[in-house]
């Protein structure tokens, strides 16, 4: 029977409507996954009746209201929401076995319940909660939260008296007045249409290459930026309306930074997409920014590798002001999420080795197979997205910082020099930090095999902590993630050797990504080792990796 179901996994199924309270009848359920749907309404407090519930994932929906969990006591839990037995608990505070919960990227209001204080702050990010976490939604997004759906009144007897009186006034309007309104409206519409066609014709007659974007306070000094109209001719251009529909009115936020927001969506009859939107006001947008934006789109569009995030197109509109990049979405989230907030058992040793080799191949493609080369602005586990089969995709979502920095540098260097004409090929190109990528790759390898973040408040930098173990064969095993029950020492030895090469204090002694990729691909075996036959645990991990 359904009430004895232990796992309810309906994630990413495009479910809509409220969560039914009858879900509390699943008395034996341990895990509920309803993430990445279109669920609305408030969270039923009956979920707290699920005494066996250990994992609850409700992120990336459109749920509203407060998180139903309260207690008459001020006692604050430190582990799994366990409260004193003499307190009056309601809602999720009653779920004493709850260990993992994710309420992020909804429209929850109020405050985080004290009994759920043991959860990481990321479990509540992307909401409208009353705390100072910058990762909460902005007030403008919260003000436009999806309204609760209410049935429309179809019985005319139930309509308010005011509406009935308005209908009566409209019905009693003289026929000659109605005809006059129709004629006047038709004439005004024709005038607007003629004005629009005339303006469009004038725009076509002007040169499409010279755009005066910015003038200084002096009428004598001005800057003219030449935009290369051929630069983006082969890149797909999306309309804002298309992306707004695909991303559910831009409510499905999956990432944010001070410079940008990242939305998830689905193009009609197409793939899932990740849309990165620049956070900048139109009055601050200059000709330099437009030129650098176009160059960045063209630069990203040339990337074509199985381990590189694929740019599907861009969006550039004036009303409302919009600058966006559209990437193909990798359905398994980021490597950072899996290492630090996901189920660590999914990242077996073999799977981690495949991810490492995939990242190395992607960087080798960027550095050695492209002309000019390409580098990731900030290479870390958050810039590595995973597909359904855990193949890595490198995405440069921080490229906006490069655009802003280059624009400020060039616009600041021409002040007070009179009339200037700026051509596309006269501006600074994309910054290439190959050595920085190689060092970051070494840190990323440590993060993958250890399961530790690059920097910890209590233990400092990951590199400093690992240096004591990297060169000692008898101590290397201490670097390995304790969640891993099986690993190959031969692979670990190769990884530690590559890490030492990447983080060498003398950049001149750093090898190229070609050399590093060759070392990893030739010395790490991701096929089935012979000694797996004797280990049932290893076979189980291999099944998870496949």
The largest sheet is: 5 strands, antiparallel
> How many strand elements?
22
**Main β-sheet, spatial strand arrangement:** 13-14-15-17-16
At the fold tier of CATH, the topology name of the largest domain is Phosphorylase Kinase, domain 1
Residue fraction in strands = 15-25%
Shape: flat
Approximate helicity band: 25-40%
Cα distance, first to last residue? 31 Å
What's the CATH superfamily of the largest domain, by name? Phosphorylase Kinase, domain 1
Mean pLDDT: 78
Structural class: alpha/beta
**How many helix segments?**
13
Low-confidence stretches: 75-86, 148-171, 205-222, 413-423, 530-539
Text of the CATH class of the largest domain: Alpha Beta
What does this structure look like?
The protein has 546 residues and is of the alpha/beta class. The chain has 3 domains: 2-138, Ribonuclease Inhibitor (Leucine-rich repeat, LRR (right-handed beta-alpha superhelix)); 209-328 and 394-430, Phosphorylase Kinase, domain 1 (2-Layer Sandwich); 343-375 and 432-546, Transferase(Phosphotransferase) domain 1 (Transferase(Phosphotransferase), domain 1). The protein is 31% helix and 15% strand. The protein is built from 13 helices and 22 strands. The chain has helices at 139-143, 161-171, 175-205, 240-246, 287-301, 335-340, 349-368, 399-412, 434-450, 462-470, 489-502, 513-523, 536-545, and strands at residues 7-9, 16-17, 31-33, 38-39, 55-57, 64-65, 69-71, 89-91, 100-102, 107-108, 210-215, 222-226, 253-256, 260-266, 272-278, 311-318, 321-328, 384-386, 392-394, 420-422, 455-456, 460-461. It has a 5-stranded antiparallel sheet, sandwiched between helices. It has a 4-stranded parallel sheet with strand order 1-3-5-9, with no helix packed on it. A hairpin with a 5-residue loop joins β18 and β19. The longest helix is centred in the middle third of the chain and has 31 residues, at 175-205. The chain is flat and about 100 Å long. The protein starts with 6 loop residues before the first strand and ends with a helix. Residues 75-86, 148-171, 205-222, 413-423 and 530-539 have low confidence and may be disordered.
